[in-house]
Amino acid sequence: MRILVIKLRHIGDVLMMTPMLRALKDFYPDAGITAVIPQGMEEMLSFNPCVAEVLPFKKGSGVIEDLRLLKTLRRARFDVAINMTEGDRGAIMCIASGAGRRIGADPAGRGFHGKSRLFTDLVPQKWDRHRALMDMEMIRPLGIEPGGQRLELHTSRENDERVLDMLAGSGIKDGARIAVVHPTSRWLFKCWNDKSAAGVMDYLRDRGFDVVLTSGPDKREIDKARAVAGFAKEKPVDLSGLLTLGQLASLLKMSRLFFGVDSAPMHMAAAVGTPVAALFGPSDYNVWGPYTGKARVVMKNDEFPCIPCRRDGCGGSKKSDCLEAITVPEVIQAVEELINIYL
């Protein structure tokens, strides 16, 4: 049996479907599962034992490349194709695959006319639950009941060794008590203020952690991370903008604690089993919170009934008052709870 799964979204979204992939593989142990995900995110699934093949999709690659991918899907002779979102491209890939069973997220009138008729099964998108549970709903038409699966993120030996070399070059030995601080997001309105984030870094160092600072490769994120480091009493090991996704996964797997905001690395930390302390404000914690029992989330929903507003800052400011209102002692309390339980 051959199964095609399509998820054309961001890094965290790709990770959210790993519990579904595990359930799918457990139900069909002999199935070969192919995943189509955005180019650049391959390492989120490349080493996952549930996935036989990862096909990257490059948005804007041109008609010829798009047709080449569709031809590849057609030749594979899939039995089942699942489009995990309401997107038009995934729907076209499903029908192009020639799969007899085509499962799609109900577009609810969005996208091109008649799109819903491309699928044999439609699954409503119910935004009253976690995204990982929403993804699990996509395989109910196959008779698979969700339950017990967790996020998964697997690393390669090459990435593990590269990160160990980078840490050793910064004076951190294998087996050290590492805390990763990732104060940035591709959406800066999800970020806390720099001085407070530095205060948590100082606290972690005082508690005996080797603090490693990370960020995405975008210049705005790197500048934000280094601004945070500028307020710290002692500079952390700064790997901001230097790690590939696979290397970041390796670093998080080696770490004892993650502190950051609502971001892809937060989900990556949860997926490798590292305890997570995260700040939430405008985004919906119930849908996008860390999908792990080893987590503490700090947010001011009692004081800000507008949470989650799902807006890019208050009044067009690109800053979120609900995040700015979080205090360093509140975060320290959350981190202490994780240390006392898991470390």
What's the helix and strand layout?
Elements: E1 2-6, H1 11-16, H2 18-27, E2 32-38, E3 53-57, H3 63-76, E4 80-83, H4 88-97, E5 101-105, E6 121-123, H5 131-137, H6 157-169, E7 178-182, H7 194-206, E8 210-213, H8 219-231, E9 237-238, H9 245-254, E10 257-261, H10 264-271, E11 276-279, H11 285-288, E12 295-298, H12 321-324, H13 328-342
Parallel strand pairs: 1-2, 1-4, 2-3, 4-5, 5-6, 7-8, 7-10, 8-9, 10-11, 11-12
Protein described:
There is one protein chain. 37% of the residues lie in helices and 15% in strands. It contains 13 helices and 12 strands. The strands form 2 sheets. A 6-stranded parallel beta sheet has the order 3-2-1-4-5-6, with helices on one face. A 6-stranded parallel beta sheet has the order 9-8-7-10-11-12, sandwiched between helices. Strand 4 (80-83), helix 4 and strand 5 (101-105) form a beta-alpha-beta unit. The longest helix has 15 residues, at 328-342.
